[in-house]
């Protein structure tokens, strides 16, 4: 099964990285519109605690969405690789003047400040990157397992927060993914063309 997952990962990353810049720009704009409409449809109090991420490796560009969410006065958080176990994520508040550093994958993250860490269950939304997704909302990540290990504590119960939302290009959808026991399925995946909900 791991070989099949690796094959899908390689194939979809290649497709994703071949998208022209013009298409990436249009996709980023569509993501901003689709996610803000999704928020409005929930008819809940305006200000939200939202964990997001910086795009990498051809992922759907989140920069326009980040700026839009700031303008709407939401509080944003970025993932920080846990400094002690190196296997899970913390979510630290992110503002325009937050001091940043590159992690060992070369992705920028806020410099660790424990007073700015948000407990997982205090987040309203957790926006997650993915390499591929299927018709049942299953998600295939980059293979590091950071999100799955971080969410393992929630996976045991029927939690209400945060709502997990995957972000992806439409070309990242496949019919079915080979699933492992630790995989956390998503109830919502947003692409530039459609909002999938299960």
Automatic annotation (TrEMBL):
ATP binds at residues 5-9, 139-147. It catalyses: (6S)-5-formyl-5,6,7,8-tetrahydrofolate + ATP = (6R)-5,10-methenyltetrahydrofolate + ADP + phosphate. Its cofactor is Mg(2+). One of its GO terms (biological process) is folic acid-containing compound biosynthetic process. One of its GO terms (molecular function) is metal ion binding. Substrate binds at residue 59. It comes from the Bacteria. Keywords: ATP-binding, Ligase, Magnesium, Metal-binding, Nucleotide-binding. Gene3D superfamilies: NagB/RpiA/CoA transferase-like. PANTHER family: 5-FORMYLTETRAHYDROFOLATE CYCLO-LIGASE (PTHR23407:SF1), ATPASE INHIBITOR/5-FORMYLTETRAHYDROFOLATE CYCLO-LIGASE (PTHR23407). Belongs to the 5-formyltetrahydrofolate cyclo-ligase family. This is 5-formyltetrahydrofolate cyclo-ligase. It comes from Pseudoalteromonas carrageenovora IAM 12662. The gene is ygfA.
